[in-house]
Records
---
Amino acid sequence: MSVTQEATMVIAPRPRPRLKLTPTTLLGALILLAFVLCAAFPDAIAPYAPNKFDYKATLKPPSWAHLFGTDNFGRDVLSRTIWAARIDLQIAVFCTLFPAIFGTLIGCVIGYTGGWVDSVFRRVVDVAITIPFLVLVIAIVAVLGPGLTNMYIAVSAVNWIIYARLIRGEILAQKRRDYAAAGKVMGFSASRILFRHLLPNALSPIMVYWMTDMALAILLGSSLGYLGLGAQPPTSEWGVLIGDGKNFMTTAWWMSIFPGIAIVIAGTGFSLLGDGLAKLVRRR
Amino acid sequence: MSVLLSVRDLSIRIGAATPVDNVSFDVKSGEMLGIVGESGSGKSLSLRALLQLLPPQASTGGTAVWQGQDLLAMAPADIRRVRGREIAMIFQEPMTALDPVLTIGKQIVESLDVHLGLRGAVARKRAVELLDLVGIPDAKRRLGNYPHEFSGGMRQRAMIAIALAAEPKLLLADEPTTALDVTIQDQILALLLRLKDELAMSVILVTHDLGIVAGTCDRVAVMYAGRIMESGPVYPVFRTPAHAYTLGLMRSVPDRAHARQPLAFIPGTPPDPGAMPPGCRFAPRCGFAAAMCSAAPPPLADIGEDHQSSCLRAEDVGRVVREAA
C-alpha cells in the first residue's frame, strides 16, 4: 500500500461517553452539598446564634420554635448542629488533606525506588497497622494536649501511612507497564516519569479512598470531641454536642441524638459519593 | 557511506547464561539494518543493551561506538541524553507504550520540550507537523485525543511521531509491526522506509519475519542462540545463503514453487541459554554439521563483499544452494 493511500482513511473518533451519575451517587453529592451550604452560610440557615443562652427555655424537647429542642443552657440544638457542620467539614478536610498529599508523595518515591527503601517502609507499615488507629491518635493528642490543631497533627502523623501504602502498590503496578519503559527510552528523567506519567495513572484509588477517609475523619474528629480531646466547648462540633448531652441522655435525648444523626448522614454522603467515584474509576 | 554505529563483541551475561555472545555489526548512515532470529535469539536484548536498558542483573561486555563514544560504558546521565534525542526506540506494543491519561498532543509536546526545549504554540505547531508526517489525518484535531481513541496502527504511528520528535539519527525498531494486522504492518513499514529517507536517519529493525526484512532492509544480520550466524546485504544473504542456519530458515518459508508439499523445517529446538553447545551453537540441529563444528566457536569470517558467515561448511552450503537453483 502506498504512502498516499495510507492517509485516506478518516475515522471519526467516537464522542466521549458522558459521565453518568447513578442515583445513589447523586444522593451522596446532594447530601454533601447540603452540609457544605450549612458550613458556608450557617448564620443564614441557622434560626438562632449557636451560643445564645436562654435560661427561660432550657432542656426543651423538639417544638416548632426549636425543631431539635434546646440544651441545658437553652441553646438551640438545630443551630448548634448546623454551625457544627463548619467544624466537622473542616476536620474532614484537614485530617485527610495533608496525609493524602504527603503519603502520596512518599508512596510514589518508595514504590518507584523499590529495593531496601521499600523493605524498610513495609516493616514500618507492618508495625503501624498493628496499633489501633484511634488509640494511637489519642496517645499522641494526650501528649500534645487537646484541641483541634493538635488533633490534626496527630492524625496526619499516622494517617499518611495508609495513603503511602495504597499509592506504593499502584506505582509498583504502573512501573511495570510499557509506557514507563517507553519514558525511559525517551530519555525522560526519573522524576518526570514518576510524577508526570506514573502518578496520574495511579491516582484514582487515592481519590476513592480519600472520600471514605473523610467520613472516617468526621467519625474520628467527633469521637475525640466527645472524649474532650478534639474541638473544645463551647465550639459547636457534633462530637462535642453529643458529649454535652451525655449527662442528660435519659431526660433530654434530643441533645445527643440529632448531632448523632448528622454524623450518620454526613458519613453516608461521603460513602455514597466515594462508591460512585469507585464505580466510575473501575469502568474506565 | 559512513559507519554510524559500530558494535563489537557485544556480550550479555545474565547469571550463568550468555544470551548474547560476541555480537558485532555496523550500522551505516541512512541504511536500514534488519536483525532476524527466533524468539530468544538475543536480538531484542542486543537492541536494549545499546541504550543500557537491560535489567540490573544483566552485565554487558564489548563496545558500541557511537559518535566516538562507547554507549555501553557511558555514565547514566550521559546515556540519558542519548536516549530519545540521538537514538530513539519504538516497541512491539503500541497499545500500552503510550501514557493512557495524557493526550497524544501532550505526549508529543513533552518529547519536544525535553529534547529540543520547544514549548507553547511552537511546540504545538511542530506536533501537528509530526502527526502529519506519520500520516495521521486531521492531525490538528487528533492532538486532543487520548491513546484509547486511536486504533493500533494509529498508536504505532503516534509512537513513531513521539520517537521522531527530537530528530534522532538512529531509530531502534523492536518488532514494530508484530502486534498489528498484516495490512497495517505494510503501512507502518512503508512509513518507516519513507521517514528513513526523508529524515536521513538509520534504522535497526528487529523482527522474526524474513519477508519484512527482504522487503524493507538494506542489510541483514541473522542471529541464532545469541550469536550472529551470517550478515550482509539482504539480496546475497537470502539468494545465496552461506550459513546452514540461514539456508534452513529460507527453506522453512512457504513459497508458491513448493505449494502442497510438506514444509521443510529445522529439527530440534534452540539450545538452553544456560547450556550452550561448545562449538557452533547451531551444530546439534545442523544437517551439515561435522566434527570440527562442535570443537570451538567458529568466528564470523568474510566470504564475499560485505558478507560474513560463521559457518565452517559455508562452501558446502553454497554448493547445495547452487544445485537447487
---
Amino acid sequence: MSIEKGRISGSQLLFMFAGFVQGSALLVDFTIGITEQQSWMVILAGLVMMVPFILSYAALAKRFHGKNLVQINDMVYGRFLGKVLSLYYIFFLSMTLSFNILDVGELYKNFLMPDTPFIFLLAVFAAACAYAVAKGIEVLARVSHLFVITGIFVIVSTFILLIDQMDFSNFLPLFELPLIRIIQGIHILSAIPYGETLVFFMIMGRLNNTERAAGYALGGLLIGAMNLLAVSVRNTAVLGRTQSIWTSASFQSIRLIDIGTVLTRMDFLIGIAQTILIFFKCSLFFYALATALSQLFGLKSYLPLILPLAGIEVILAATVFQSPVDHAVITQNAGIIYSSPLIYVFSPLTLLIAKIRSLPGHERGGGT
Amino acid sequence: MRKKKGVTIAVIVLCVFMVFALSGCLGGREINDLEIVIGIGVDKDEKTGNVLVTAQIVRKQAAGSSPGSDGGGDEKAFWNVSSVGGSIFEAMRQMTHKTGNRLFVSHNQVVIFGNDVAAEGLQSYIDFFLRAREMRPTVLILVAEGRASDVMDAKPDTEKFPAMNIAKLVKTYGYTSHLYKVNMKDFSECLMCSEKASFAPLITVSDNEGSKDVFVPGMAVFKNGKMVGKLGHGEVRGVLWVLGKVKSGVITVPSPDGGGKAILEIIEAKSKAIPEIIDGKIIIHVMVEVELSLSEQTTAENLATVPAFGKIQDASEEVVRKEIMAAFKKTSELKADIFGFSEMLYKKYSKEWKSMKDNWDDIYPTIELDIDVASRVVTTNLLRNPASPKEGEK
C-alpha cells in the first residue's frame, strides 16, 4: 500500500536537498556564539561529517526502493519495535517542524511585522505549508529549483552589496578556539541544518530511480552547505566580533547595506528569501510528518491528517517555549540531543541490520 | 459537491481575514501621526543626574519651505524636544507627553553624546540604540564638546536641519581626512574589545557674529567606552594613515627653493600595518603609499621638474611620518590603542598575545613603529609651469 502516488526525479531530489538546507540559513546563528570567527570551518566540518550518514539514507532508499521510513522500520525491526522507532521519528519530525514554524514567527515578530498577532503569523504560515503539502510531493519537487535559485540570488546579491564593508581579517586567528567548542559547533551544525535531512527518509522512497540517489543527495547537500558557508562568511566578514550579539546576524549585516545612500534598507530581501526557504523546509517536514503518521495508522491517504496536524503544530510552536532565550538554549542543547540517535545511530544501524538479514529479500517490491 | 462548496466558502472567508491581518495595516501609522526624528542628543540632566534626551523632530509643515525662510523661531523646520528619564528609552517615551505621538526613529541620522555622558562612559547609554528595532546600525555617533542639546540647535543658513548638517559634516570627512565617520556598528565593535580604543568625531558650537555654527575640531578617544582624551586634526589623520582610511586631504610642504609652499592634494592613499615580535619587542611595520597632485604653489619656481618633485615627495613623506608619530605619541600618553595594534597582534600572534593582554596598557607605549612612506606626485593639474616670468626673463 502506498499513501503517495507522486514520483520525483533525481535532479528534483538534488534541488529539494539544497533548498531544505538553505532553509536553515538563519539557524547558522546558533553556532556563532560558540564558534565565533571559526563558524565557517564548522559548516564545512559538519558537512564532511554528515556525508556517511547521507550515504546511508541513500543506500536504504536504494535497498528498500519505493518504501518509506515507517515501512522500512517495520521490515527491519519487526512490527512492534519498528512502530516504536517510527513514533520516535514522528516525535522528532513534529517537534522540529514546530520549532521551524516558531522561527518564522520570531523572524516576523522581530523584524518584519512586529504588531501582527504572533499566533496569526504562525497559523497563516502553517496554512500555507498545509496547502503545499496537500498538493503532494510532486508539486513541491517541481518548484524546488525556483526556491533554490531565489535563495542563491539573495545570498549572492547581498554578498556583493556588502563586499566593501567586509574585513577578511575578521577570520583571524584561524585556530584559536578550544576544541570542545568546535566539536559542539560541529554537532549543532550537523544535527540542525544537515541532520534534519532525515525527512528525506519519507521522500526518497518516491524517487523514480534510486540508482544515483546518493549522488543527487550529496550534490544537493553540497549546494545547501555552500549557501550556509556564504552566509556565515558574509556575516563574519561584515560584523566581526559583534556578530554574536545580534538576534540575527544575517539581518544585521544586511541592514548595513548602504550604496550611495540610495540602496539602503534591504532588510526585505532577506525577509522574502527566508520566508520562501523556511516555507519549503517546513513543507517538506510537514509532508514527512503527515505521510509517516498516516503510514503508521494504516490510512489510505495522508490528506485528512493535514489540517489537524497544522493546528497541533501551530499550538506547539506557540506554547512550547516561554521566550526566544528558551528557544535558543533548548534547541542548542536538548534539541540536538533528542535528534542525535536518529541522525547518527538509527540510519546506519537500520542499514546494517538490513544487510545482515538480507532485507528486503523476498519482500522486495512488496508492501507491508 | 456540498463539501466542495463548504471548502470554497471557508477559503474565501480565510482570504478576507488574511487581507486585514497580513497587509501590514495593523502596525500602520499615517505620516501625519509620525514624529520623524532625525537626530538625538544625550546629556546628563544637571538637576537630577538622570538622562536628558533631546530629539530633533521634523516639522512637516515647515519642512517644505526654503532654507532661508526658517530664521524666525516659529518658522524653524525642526523642533527640538527634550525629556528626562532614568534611561534613554524611558526618556524617549516620556517625550510622548509633549509630542502626542510616539517618536519614529527609523530616519535618525546622528546620535550626539554630551561631554559629561562621554566622560562617564557610553557603555550604559548605547544599548538602546543598538537594540531598538527602528534604529539603523549605520547611525553616526558624535561627541559634543559641551552639551549635545546646544549642538542640536546650531546650523548654517543653507541647511534646514541641524542634525542633517552634522551628518553631512561627518560623511564628507574625506575632503580633509581630519575626522572619520563612526557608526553604531563600528563603535559597538570597539566596545566589545577592552584593549582596543575607539574614537568618535567631536562637535562644538562656534559663535559666528551672532549666528551659531557647528564645527568638528577633532575626535574624542574612548577606552572601555569612556572618553579619555581628544585628537586634533593632524593626529586624526595620523591614525587614518595607518588604518588606511585616508581618502583625500591637503599636505603642505615648503617649496624646494624655500621661497614659498607647495600644496598637495592626496589623490589616493593605501596602507598596510604588519606586527612583528622580535626578541620580545613589538615592532609595527607601517607601509603607506600616497598619490598626490600639485594643487597649488606659492612660489614662482617651476616645481614640475624631476628634482623638485623628488624634494616635494620627500617632504610630503616626512609630513605623513610626523602625523603618524604625533598620533602614536598622543595615544601612548592616553594609553589608548586607537590603531588596533592589539587586535593585529591577537590575529597574528594569538599565543603570545595571551601573555600581553593583561599588561597591554603598559606595553602599548613601548611599541616601535617602523614607518615606510612612498609618495608620488602624479599630476600638476591644469598648469605645467606657474604663471611667472621664465628663468632667463627674470
